[in-house]
Specification:
The complex is a heterotrimer of chains A (about 290), B (about 270) and C (about 280). Chain A has about 290 residues and is α/β, with parallel strands linked by helices. Chain A has helices at about 45-55, 80-85, 100-110, 115-130, 145-160, 175-195, 205-210, 230-235, 235-240, 250-260, 270-280; strands spanning about 1-15, 20-30, 35-40, 60-65, 70, 85-90, 165-170, 195-200, 215-220, 220-230. Chains in contact: A-B, A-C, B-C.
Chain lengths: ~290, ~270, ~280
């Protein structure tokens, strides 16, 4: 069942000035309940503008955004509820932290929802657990934590609103490999528990390959493609043509296919590549 | 929304006014202000107006921009005009009602003052319209440099000013981002009761301060790494060179000033 | 070739008011020759940035010595001389640009050093051309992309004609396009101008393109070799939570499964060739 849907969504900046620019151009798409979606596109492709429409931070110039079948701009008073149902985590979200303790910062969103103390506490504890923040950290000042921990506090602050759709804009930007893996695995844990829809914007197709059911690619304000992960990787050559990074291993197999050696080209994990090669070598792993 | 705010209101261009040495432009603007206040006759004001309109024409900036510069001060102008109109009691009485009366002296003075202030605003806007804030800062630093001997921190103030100018767009963008992020967490910024809005303001100001301190700290390190050691012995890439045109502009301005003084002394009206 | 950087038994602890000071660097010995391109790889907290800050005297050793082009970093009298020879580029492109006009920012260091106008103009223009930013010289930094800002910062350093540039995670905040631009500029400076480059990073693909990779963990140097030899130590790298290029990992996994393939592979071309050879032999 679709939870989020756009119909001919168009957004134009600075209408009527010399700086007029269409950032999102007639985009129609449908996102299903419980999906994990990877969002790609280079800077200026329109992906950031697109996701800010999903929770009503931006209003379409034309077209509609439907949440659960209802136009989110139908009733402006309900817009705040839309923001609770579609949680948006911005890039470098640690900059939004302001409370004295980790607990209170994570509780900011749920408090704004008007929940009672007990419910707020439950949500804070559960999301802190999902995101890997131990209980003794909750009473500390968020400003004393490490960069990676701060990032997780900020993400937990949005998760605790238990939005039906959670959107994360480059949640791993600037982190080292260990920090990146940690955040991605915690997001996966949250998805396991809540089964909520998640969209993750990332520049790394390698990362996206590890979690996404479907991949949405934006290019020049238009929807370039939106398909199952495997099918998107099968178009790896087109994707690298529009200036996006394709995993190294995929590029190797594209080259092997070009030389007529391998058949598959939608190879994107080392594990799969290894199995494939061993099969080609007529052997089994471990024998 | 915040992105639309313009600061400094600089209109880039290549007119003769744009190309004048900014130090001369500041001095000329000061002389212009003196010029407006020297005469007390309409003829003097007419000369000042002629000077202003000539300069505006030479700058190539649309006249409506100068009207715009007056707009924010309109309430102040109206109040000043009304005070003059009602409080000056010289000349013939034109109209009266109970204790209020309007005299020819009052009308004259209020029109005179209004015209004077409007010219003053338009003329000084010309300085900021044709000179970028950073150039202006630089020119002020150089004009004030004799004060260094009196241990007045001219260089430091100018450096602070130029860093502020450099970071204004960055901080505006950052504020925009923080507002969006807190809105996404349900913070009511533009609606809700006064107390919730005040509380939500904290959620914007704290991150903004934290990030500004971090930026300041990193910038200071970066400046040190590039051998910054105060104003002592510094040279500049930006060369301010005065040319013939600057002296001509100055001479023309002084000529107009002399005209105003002469008119004030010699003309009968 | 002579060494531009000599680090001897460098220890460093931050002054903390609490019980015992935390030692961040625990005895580092490192020589870097003039003209080398060295990547320093390590996760956050490995001490790699602290090490970088010692090279141009933002930090001074608690014990041990750091010599840059023969200058002891602890010698305060030669601080400006040192910083002119070893320039530093930081992670956040915004927080190191001082002026609202690109060319004036590039000139900032030269202005501080009191370089005369004609010379300064020449050096600023050369530096901007070297990083391909000359046409943007009159722009405001706020109009530039992250990669462009970072190239302006690099221009500001090379205008000071340094022998060595230390880049502290210069690409961490950039998008893939910006990363490519910055790396291309840095490689060009090394190749064509012979400037020694020390690139602090946690991106293994950036390290793979360097001449030498130093891996740090817990305040010590754990590996120091050519990139293909460093990355073939897949076990060690995974233990200290660092990435390995996918092609290296594949070769290593295949070798573990008994295939005849060298794990010293770091580029796609090498991997393709090795796989062709491997499959060719077997089929």
């Amino acid at each position: 069942m679709s939870i989020l849907k756009t119909e001919e969504l168009t957004y134009t900046y600075s209408v009527g000035t010399p700086f007029e620019k269409t950032a999102v151009d007639h985009v129609s798409l449908e996102i299903n309940e419980g999906e994990m979606i990877g969002v790609m596109g280079h800077t200026g492709s329109g992906k950031s503008t697109l996701i800010q429409h999903f929770n009503g931070l931006l209003r379409p110039t034309s077209g509609r955004v439907l949440l659960d079948g209802r136009d989110i701009w139908e009733d402006k008073d309900k817009l705040r509820d839309v923001r609770f149902q579609v949680g948006l985590v911005f890039q470098y979200p640690e900059y939004q932290i302001f409370e004295e303790t980790v607990f209170r910062d994570i509780a900011f969103g749920p408090k704004n929802m008007g929940l009672d103390e007990a419910e707020i506490k439950r949500r804070v504890l559960e999301t802190a657990n999902d995101i890997g923040l131990s209980e003794e950290l909750l009473e500390r000042s968020p400003f004393d934590l490490s960069g990676g921990q701060k990032r997780r506090v900020a993400i937990a602050g949005v998760m605790a609103m238990e939005p039906k759709v959670l959107i994360l804009d480059e949640p791993t930007a600037g982190l080292d490999p260990a920090g990146r893996d940690k955040i991605l695995s915690h997001i996966r844990a949250y998805h396991e528990r809540t089964k909520n829809t998640i969209l993750i914007v990332s520049h790394s197709m390698e990362d996206i390959a590890t979690f996404a059911d479907r991949i949405l690619v934006m290019n020049n304000a238009k929807l370039f493609c939106f398909d199952e992960t495997k099918k998107v990787f099968a178009r790896a050559d087109e994707i690298s043509q529009i200036g996006l990074d394709v995993p190294q291993i995929t590029r190797v197999f594209m080259e092997l296919k070009k030389r007529g050696i391998a058949q598959d080209k939608e190879v994107y994990t080392v594990g799969y590549a290894k199995e494939l090669l061993l099969k080609m070598l007529g052997r089994r792993e471990g024998s | 929304m915040l992105k639309d705010v313009t600061i400094g209101q600089f209109f880039p261009g290549n007119s003769i006014i744009h190309r004048l040495d900014p130090r001369f432009k500041i001095v000329i603007t000061l002389i212009f202000i003196v010029m407006l206040f020297m005469g007390s006759r309409f003829a003097c004001l007419a000369i000042g107006a002629l000077y202003t309109f000539l300069a505006i024409m030479l700058s190539g900036i649309p006249f409506k921009m100068f009207l715009k510069s007056v707009k924010p001060l309109l309430p102040f102008l109206i109040i000043t005009a009304l005070i003059n109109l009602f409080l000056v009691g010289t000349g013939d009485v034109l109209w009266s009602w109970r204790f209020l009366k309007i005299t020819t002296g009052g009308v004259n003075l209020s029109v005179f003052m209004l015209a004077r202030i409007v010219l003053l605003i338009m003329g000084s806007s010309l300085l900021t319209y044709t000179t970028s804030p950073i150039t202006l800062t630089d020119a002020i630093e150089r004009l004030l440099s004799p004060l260094k001997k009196l241990r007045f921190p001219v260089h430091e103030l100018a450096m602070m000013m130029s860093i502020a100018l450099r970071f204004i767009p960055t901080l505006i963008e950052e504020t925009d981002k923080i507002i969006s992020a807190q809105k996404a967490r349900g913070a009511e910024i533009d609606s809700g009761s006064f107390t919730t809005r005040a509380k939500n303001l904290v959620s914007i100001l704290v991150p903004l301060f934290v990030s500004s301190f971090r930026r300041a700290d990193e910038l200071a390190t970066a400046m040190e790494c590039r051998c910054y050691n105060g104003g002592e012995g510094r040279t500049r890439l930006r060369q301010l060179r005065s040319a013939r045109k600057d002296y001509i502009a100055l001479a023309v301005t002084v000529f107009f000033l002399a005209g105003v003084i002469a008119a004030d002394k010699l003309l009968p009206f | 070739m002579s060494n531009i950087i000599e680090i001897r038994d460098l220890h460093f602890s931050y002054d903390t008011e609490s019980e015992k000071p935390a030692e961040v660097l625990k005895g580092i010995d490192l020589d870097i020759a003039e003209g080398e391109f060295v990547a320093v790889l390590g996760h956050n907290g490995s001490g790699k940035s602290t090490l970088a800050k010692h090279i141009n005297a933002i930090l001074i050793p608690t014990s041990g010595k750091v010599l840059v082009d023969g200058i002891d970093t602890a010698d305060e009298g030669r601080l400006f001389e040192l910083r002119q020879r070893a320039g530093m580029v930081f992670q956040n492109p915004d927080n190191q640009i001082v002026s609202s006009i690109v060319e004036e920012d590039v000139a900032f260091g030269l202005e501080n050093l009191g370089v005369q106008y004609e010379e300064m103009r020449q050096r600023v223009d050369d530096a901007l051309r070297a990083v391909n930013m000359y046409e943007y010289r009159l722009h405001s930094p706020s109009q530039l992309s992250g990669g462009q800002k970072q190239r302006v910062a690099i221009a500001g350093i090379i205008a000071m004609r340094p022998k060595c540039i230390i880049l502290d995670e210069p690409t961490a905040m950039l998008d893939p396009q910006g990363r490519k631009e910055v790396l291309a500029a840095v490689h060009m400076l090394n190749r064509e101008h012979g400037i020694t480059i020390i690139l602090i990073t946690h991106y293994m693909d950036e390290a793979a393109q360097c001449g030498r990779v130093v891996v740090m963990d817990k305040g010590r140097v754990v590996l120091d070799d050519k990139p293909e030899r460093v990355f073939s130590q897949v076990d060690t790298l995974k233990k200290i939570r660092l990435d390995v290029p996918q092609v290296t990992e594949l070769a290593w996994e295949l070798k573990k499964a008994g295939c005849d393939i060298s794990p010293e592979i770091i580029s796609e071309e090498e991997c393709v060739e090795a796989l062709v050879r491997l499959l060719g032999v077997r089929s």
